[in-house]
Amino acid sequence: MRRTPAFRPRRGRALAPVAVLALVSALAAGCNDDGGDSDSDDKDEKDGPVVALTEEQISEALLQEENLGEGWISRPAEEDDGKAPGCLGQADLLVEQLEYQAKAGTEFEYGDSLPTVDTSISAYAAEPSIKAIFDQAQVVLSACTSITGEDTDGNTWDLTMKTTEDVRYDGVDDQLDLSATGTIAEPGGQPVEVYIETTYVRVGPNIAVVATVDVQQRSTEHAAWAEIAVERLVDVAQGDEPEDTTAPAPA
């Protein structure tokens, strides 16, 4: 089944820090906030504080086509100023409070269809500021378990979300995982069922996002792609060269 614009991740939102939120053209939220401070103990083990990555470092840290294997095509992520409905839009307003120093993203698609994987990294000047915004977004999302209504592009959303803030990766200071299911309908079109998995991590003043969209569940595949993406970010942030790792092809 070919992808329609209704499934297409919002490329520009993938570049926003927590944009949990409007990263994909289908997202919803709901999480249990534990106070917003889930910094990993691994931070104390780093060789000095992590600083904001440069554009060159971000290019190296981003998920690469060879990490996904054969059958994938990639292109640079595109900006999108569209707004999501409900609490996703509210969280997006938090994102706009800070200006990034550098950012980049890549969008992948499997052949000319689904699934799609979007990855992005945004670097900010001050870690306390981006940490506070990340934490505030978690609070906003904790009050939201479903998204219904139209976005500014006229797409109609009807989604539910499960969210966790468990930090599962070494070298990561904060993490947010979202799993959304439901339907999205383009203007005048019929609702189409979508499955979305999104992982957000903060490493110092840097935010990485990995989002997977498909018309079938891709939890296992997303976990593999996200792990590779996070490992690349942590390696570059710590001054190491990322490993050459290739994930299995989608089933």
Automatic annotation (TrEMBL):
Top-level division of the source organism's lineage: Bacteria
Signal peptide: 1-28
Keywords, alphabetical: Signal
Annotated protein name in UniProt: Sensor domain-containing protein
Organism: Nocardioides immobilis
Lineage: Bacteria, Bacillati, Actinomycetota, Actinomycetes, Propionibacteriales
